[in-house]
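Complex 378.
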Amino acid sequence: MNKIRIGFVGAGWMGSVQLKRLTERNDVEVLALFEVNKERGIEVLKSVGLSPSLLVTDYNDIVNNPAIDAVWLVSPNSFHAPQAIAAMKAGKHVFSEKPAATTFADFCTEIELEKANPKLVTFVDYILYFDSMEQQLRNMVAKGQFGDITQIQINYRHPVNIAGDKVWKLNKAIMGNAIGMGINHAISVMIFSMASQAKPVGIYATSMPAKVRGFEADPIWALTVHFDNGATGFCFGNIDNGNGYDAFHSLYGTEGAFTFDSQQERPNKVRYWSQKATQGKWIFPLNLQQCKSQGLEQCIWPDDTTTPDNGNVVEHQTGSAVGHFIDCVKNKAKSPLSFANSSIIAEIGWAAQMSASLRQPVSLPLDWTKAGKFFENF
Ligand SMILES: NC(=O)c1ccc[n+]([C@@H]2O[C@H](COP(=O)([O-])OP(=O)(O)OC[C@H]3O[C@@H](n4cnc5c(N)ncnc54)[C@H](O)[C@@H]3O)[C@@H](O)[C@H]2O)c1
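Predicted structure with nicotinamide-adenine-dinucleotide bound:
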């Protein structure tokens, strides 16, 4: 079997975890690491059992290396798009940490390049897609277990890690807008949960400056998303402060409802009711005793069901995300999270910025010409 040969970029907090996941696979070979902090690069290579000689000091050594099949971008946000665009122009597949771009022009270029080069595999790491609770939720919505969804709320309130080298996250020019820093995880959950029933057609958003830490870009957001079936989505985002990880979910439908409270102890984190699946009773699918006492043992979820309630990247579904991208490359398949296929998630971020600034609703899908003019002067 031919191994997929990787050029890796950015061995920081998230990058070192993903590099480790790659080295655990036998269908992958890491050919080079570009990391501007040489000491850190060498230290991380050694820690994952790779040779320090893989460190390169110029990104072009990755782009111009004909042996490399795919470029893996875990650099700070503002470098993702320039590095992705250069890689795609050189015919390389691209794994990009989120956000895919910090400028609207680069976002458009990435999508145009993907469409012009259909053999290229691209991927944006909206990692909650791989969480098993989120997969359960998507399946239940698609099976109509809650009837028609009329309202959906997904929060992302989590004081993102700015310790040590990660202080670049305070800098607007490097971080971009705060929506791309994690609030887009909540947007991705909302869009994928609703995908079987409705598409977003508009957004109204407000934002606030930092209250606690020194973020240059507004880190506090409230997004109202309108869907084509009349349903409304709501997202509270805050990367400025908090006590733990708030990824609260609340879905309401005509025949059921679903609630996830990341701050609860595991047995009580998830509850739902469904006319079809639980005879209209509220059940806690992670709570064996409760399901038994309701006579609904068939509703228990497997012990290894993951829930999205941790800001620690070591505990994220990195193995699944890495495996998904490698499988897409091996099978020459498009990912649902490719730049183009996931573009509505990024568009909601751009539309939110426009809406908050203009103090008016913005239609989706985004009018690229209007948005381009807006961001030229932003
Ligand atoms: N999906 C998630 O849940 C999640 C979680 C954490 C971080 N991230 C993303 O991962 C990326 C990295 O974040 P982090 O927290 O690991 O930050 P970090 O600062 O720990 O790591 C960034 C690394 O990139 C290196 N670097 C700086 N400039 C570079 C350049 N021009 N090219 C290549 N490397 C460069 C730095 O030296 C550092 O080692 C960010 O885009 C962030 O949004 C995603």
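Residues 29 and 353 are 40 Å apart (CA to CA).
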